[in-house]
Design brief:
Elements lengths: L1 H10 L5 H22 L1 H25 L5 H16 L2 H18 L1
Helix pairs in contact: 1-2, 3-4
Length: 106
């Protein structure tokens, strides 16, 4: 499903003419069919994968900005292991807690 979402994003870029719009339309139909057939579990997995890839890029960009000492390397590897171990339930609980903190601060 994640691959189908990536394909749809690729086809959705500007330009390309009639043929690309037709391929985008078909890809969108396949994605909707997959979403309906799979239920919420697959959508949760896609959301988690998207978050993990975004968090990994941020982590690696932060690592690139450091002097790359041994401690920085160990910290980054530890964070990567923790990021890979996150499940959807952990992600959902953390998101809920952040929303509650934001609501309390307002």
């Amino acid at each position: 499903m994640v691959e189908q979402i990536r394909k749809l994003r690729d086809l959705n870029r500007p330009g390309g003419g009639w043929w690309r719009r037709r391929r985008e339309w078909r890809a969108r139909e396949r994605l909707v069919d997959m979403m309906v057939a799979s239920g919420p579990e697959l959508l949760n997995e896609a959301e988690l994968r998207h978050w993990k890839s975004h968090a990994m890029v941020e982590l690696l960009l932060k690592f690139m900005d450091t002097a790359m000492k041994k401690d920085d390397t160990v910290e980054t590897l530890t964070r990567i292991e923790a990021l890979n171990a996150v499940t959807y339930e952990d992600y959902r609980q953390a998101r809920k807690k952040l929303a509650e903190e934001k609501a309390a601060a307002s």
